[in-house]
Amino acid sequence: xxxxxxxxxxxxxxxxxxxxxxxxxxxxxxxxxxxxxxxxxxxxxxxxxxxxxxxxxxxxxxxxxxxxxxxxxxxxxxxxxxxxxxxxxxxxxxxxxxxxxxxxxxxxxxxxxxxxxxxxxxxxxxxxxxxxxxxxxxxxxxxxxxxxxxxxxxxxxxxxxxxxxxxxxxxxxxxxxxxxxxxxxxxxxxxxxxxxxxxxxxxxxxxxxxxxxxxxxxxxxxxxxxxxxxxxxxxxxxxxxxxxxxxxxxxxxxxxxxxxxxxxxxxxxxxxxxxxxxxxxxxxxxxxxxxxxxxxxxxxxxxxxxxxxxxxxxxxxxxxxxxxxxxxxxxxxxxxxxxxxxxxxxxxxxxxxxxxxxxxxxxxxxxxxxxxxxxxxxxxxxxxxxxxxx
Length: 390
Fold this sequence. Notes:
Elements: E1 3-8, H1 12-22, E2 28-34, H2 37-47, E3 51-54, H3 63-73, E4 77-82, H4 86-98, E5 102-105, H5 115-139, E6 181-183, E7 186-188, E8 202-207, H6 211-219, E9 230-234, H7 238-251, E10 255-258, E11 269-272, E12 277-284, E13 287-294, H8 306-317, E14 321-325, H9 334-342, E15 346-350, H10 360-366, E16 372-374, H11 376-386
Parallel strand pairs: 1-2, 1-3, 3-4, 4-5, 7-16, 8-9, 8-14, 9-11, 10-11, 14-15, 15-16
Antiparallel strand pairs: 6-7, 12-13
């Protein structure tokens, strides 16, 4: 049976174009369309689609408010279409706040070099979200409050810097803990029972689809005196990374910034790789700095690439790295994690149940590279325990 999709946009041309692209896959059926957010809310309840594609700027009720109402009343996997502007980035993160799972640029020439590739990517994203739709409908992937903000209070949507929030949280776990499994070369458990005693000099995180929510869930729990520098690779358009890092910085006790060429790694600072470029670590482990490089190579699919950043971390920090692979499509991060593991580093992966897309974590887990598979809510506590802060 084909997955049911509701297409929401006030442009008849865009509704038709998206519908035509999605209907090319026999596993997808566009069952209805809506011209504004109010219609979307009503049809989400009546049609019960597996996935909704949603525009942001619409009459009657905008896409952000529509997402919020849908997730409160008829939880559904939602893919947002966004403009690649600063305002578009802010609106997209507000939509993720409201409960959307993923986003794509609305101009298809910004998704891929040709229309065929863009159409294929759109269908792939919809199929991935459709496969997750049953868990979204069953329990939701978000608290009823804001998802990118605090789980216990509402948060202004502005990027304006404000006082750092307390990390104390009464958050209800969003996923069921995994039971312990006994597998050769891999420990899978819901929580880290005790620290390994290993010493670290860097925390490295790689993620893609579902990453903005996952990263924030982790970073807001880290104290301002977190003892390690953090490098983060999130597959994201160039227009979005500065807005995203600013947003995280406004919410976290640690400092968060979009990485710049020449940045010296400092404890308690998280550096987000700029979209469209590669972030490498250079220097020595006691005087490490970042190199931000343009990358026009057709051989590298992801810009930024987790593999490239993790590989450079292996050269500088050897085994003194805790690497974490979070939700995301594909296998980026597997080879970089393999290089780190070969140097003696520790690699963890997010578990399948809490991932929006279990691609990147599955790649490192199936290869026997990760030593721990964790629900998203357990990642930050496990990090703090492992480095001696928990």
